[in-house]
Write a structure and sequence with these properties.
By secondary structure, the chain is of the alpha/beta class. It has helices at 8-16, 38-48, 63-67, 75-84, 101-104, 118-126, 147-154, 193-200, 234-243, 274-289, 307-318; strands at 3-5, 21-23, 30-34, 57-59, 89-94, 109-113, 131-132, 160-162, 174-179, 182-187, 204-205, 229-231, 248-252, 265-267, 295-298. Strand 2 (21-23) and strand 3 (30-34) form a beta hairpin. The longest helix has 16 residues, at 274-289. The structure holds threonylcarbamoyladenylate and magnesium ion. Threonylcarbamoyladenylate binds next to strand 5 and strand 6.
């Protein structure tokens, strides 16, 4: 099992010698390696069992460090960076040659992000290279929002997990790029569409095109628990499964269900707070996935604030 701790010096020295370290970010935990070290990058793909066509995001300490690795930042994306970095926003920018094709899966853009978590910010300040870091989960499974989540799945494969507590946002970063002068969102995430549009005006949302995914966060079945998850009208789903005598778990936005055992239900935010719901989503999915239920019944949230991104994850989790 991996050692879990808060030792930034140790994390920095492992990373500098080409090893991987799981790191906390405000969105989800990342499986980090030196983005300029092809051995470390290959190790990330191997550890996650991630297909090589799925590019990695690199993490940097600030926008000035970003400029060293990309050719240009279009004005609209610069405005977004100024507004939301450090934070849950990834920009797709034309890469410089020093970023290897392994990182970008051969694409000429690289995903870059300046994370907000204080421990990881301190870590980045100690390093003279960017960190490539996908979410620290096996490919296709629910992303980790605590050090223990990482330990549960990848603990045997990483030497060290930097423990930054539970993630603040709980959803991956929003991925934004440009096509033909138009701002495009490729993955809904921790920065809401509303917030992005308040800076750059109307954007194109393209997260669903799944046949040739530009971003495998776009793959239909992703972020998925092992148990089947059904999305729909909760009362009807509950009634029909109860009639069939199936043991089910319920994942709701706000409501609790007096007839349901407490370990077989999870209300994401009893008060109806979207940020709280996002923060709880992946833990809730993990908890219900390890319950004795045969199936998880879930409902969509209203499509506002982070509700849109939460629904996106629920839909992908329900796709088989
Ligand atoms: O919040 C986050 O973004 C977390 C934390 C750790 O930073 N990271 C994360 O990485 O979610 P990952 O690898 O699990 O998801 C990154 C997504 C993938 O779906 C990948 O295909 C897409 O970003 N991506 C990365 N670079 C890209 C590029 N150049 N063009 C298109 N999509 C890209
Ligand atoms: Mg991921």
């Amino acid at each position: 099992m991996a050692e879990i701790g808060k030792d930034i010096k140790k994390a920095a020295s492992l990373l500098s010698s080409g090893k991987l370290v799981a790191i906390p970010t405000e969105t989800v935990y990342g499986l980090a390696g030196n983005a300029l070290d092809e051995g470390a990058v290959l190790d990330i793909f191997k550890t996650k069992q991630r297909p090589s066509f799925d590019p990695l995001i690199i993490h940097l300490r600030d926008i000035d460090q970003v400029r060293a690795y990309v050719d240009a930042i279009p004005e609209e994306l610069e405005q977004l960076a100024q507004k939301f970095w450090p934070g849950p926003l990834t920009l797709l920018l034309p890469k410089k040659d020093m970023i290897s094709d392994l990182v970008t899966s051969g694409l000429d853009t690289v995903g870059v992000r300046v994370p907000r978590h204080p421990l990881t910010r301190k870590l980045l300040h100690r390093l003279d290279f960017p960190l490539a870091a996908p979410s620290a989960n096996p490919f296709g499974y629910i992303s980790p929002t605590s050090a223990q989540h990482v330990q549960d799945q990848l603990g045997g494969q990483v030497p060290y997990i930097l423990d930054g507590g539970a993630c603040d946002i709980g959803l991956e970063s929003t991925i934004v790029g440009m096509e033909q002068g138009q701002v495009v969102i490729y993955r809904l995430g921790g920065t809401s569409v509303q917030d992005i549009e308040s800076v750059v005006g109307k954007v194109l949302i393209l997260p669903q095109s799944s046949s040739n995914p530009k971003s495998p966060g776009m793959l239909k079945s992703h972020y998925a628990p092992r148990k089947p998850l059904l999305l729909g009208h909760l009362d009807e789903l509950i009634e029909s499964h109860r009639q069939k005598g199936i043991v089910f778990a319920v994942l709701s936005f706000q409501r609790s269900f007096p007839e349901q055992p407490s370990e077989l239900q999870y209300a994401l935010s009893p008060e109806g707070d979207y940020d709280e719901a996002a923060r709880n989503l992946f833990s809730a999915m993990r908890a219900l996935d390890s319950s004795n239920a045969e199936i998880i019944l879930a409902e969509e949230l209203p499509e506002i604030h982070l509700g849109k991104a939460i629904n996106d994850r629920l839909r992908r989790a329900s796709a088989r």
